[in-house]
Fold this sequence. Notes:
This protein is α/β, with parallel strands linked by helices. 26% of the residues lie in helices and 24% in strands. The chain is globular, with a radius of gyration of 21 Å.
Amino acid sequence: MKALQFDYQFPRYIFSKLTGKFFPSVYWNSRLSCLKFYDESEPNLPNDDWVKVKVKYGGICGSDLNLLFLNDSPATSPFVSFPFTIGHEIVGEITETGSQANDFKIGDRVVIDPILSCAARGITNPCSPCRRGDHHLCIHKTEGSLSPGLLIGACRDTGGGWSSCLVAHKSQVFKLPNEVDDLNGVMVEPFSCALHGVLRNLPSKHDTVLVIGGGVIGLCVIAAIRALDISCNIVALVKHDFQARLASQYGANKIILLRKSTYIHDLVESLNAKLLNPLFGPDVIQRGADLVFECVGRKQSINDALRFSKNGGKVVLLGLAGIIDGIDWTTVWLNELDVKGSFAYGTEEYRGRRMKTFDVAIELIRDKKVDLSPFITHRFPLEEYRNALSTASNKRNHSAVKVVFEPNS
């Protein structure tokens, strides 16, 4: 089968890092890059608790692009095993089941929670995060019966969504009801990331919420808030006109375009804030949003999240920021901000029940509380990966939101 794999080799890393600054396509369009289009054998079931899944759609995530552009922090490197097939946003069909995966049968349409925690690793005495349902915080992601890997799409043993098929532990597999089509199915994973951040930091109906970023996660945060029937005031800061249209479609009350000359004043007005002029440097903001979801992970977006939060407010970081210089943390202590990270998905409190985030996401889509299919703007066969990655990394030129592979098309 064909697969797109990432294989770290120091000479390739250095070549790509130096050349990519001037020619970004080098990261996926050079024989000397870390990305390789391989013809390899299908992965085998590690044991009888696993299933094999034929991939219908494999999404291109912002974190995948971060990987290809070699922007990941070295702090994540212990949690991968090379070479690995990329791709963790997956909808597909089961083609093989282990004898202990009794809840599934060949032909089931499924989505995959890619986190490789204690259950998938065959660890019989789970860590405390896994016992309480927070498998995304598992402390054994380098141990057990599998090679190191934070998730499917970063582990050499499992395959990934940028290929024809992969294997997954039965605990990672979620059946799709007939009401959830495949386009919504491939959005379950990114929607669950946003949903987890919202459910762990629920706005009240009286709050003003600032969402920074009009990419998939930022738009999914807006969609999640409205799908949960929360009637708070949502202000969205987005970069492109097509993102503004989607932000409005999914329920933002006010859209601010990221225009250098105007966006500060537009945000001040929309948040009923006050602008103060320092001796030098960026404007200082008083008052602001009750809750800020930062969904970009860049220096400017993090600084804006901190300074546009009101005194005693909360900032939730979903943008997968790495090593960033130039963040002004003054407002964190001066305004006693609550700054929280949010990663992936786990088990949530939802309407009086304890439910896995994926189950909540699937239920909301099934019940027509949200339709995420408009997010899918581009589809490519795996062989056209150069065009796919160019499209995904040049959103403005292509009006791209979610780009997906169709490996078996």
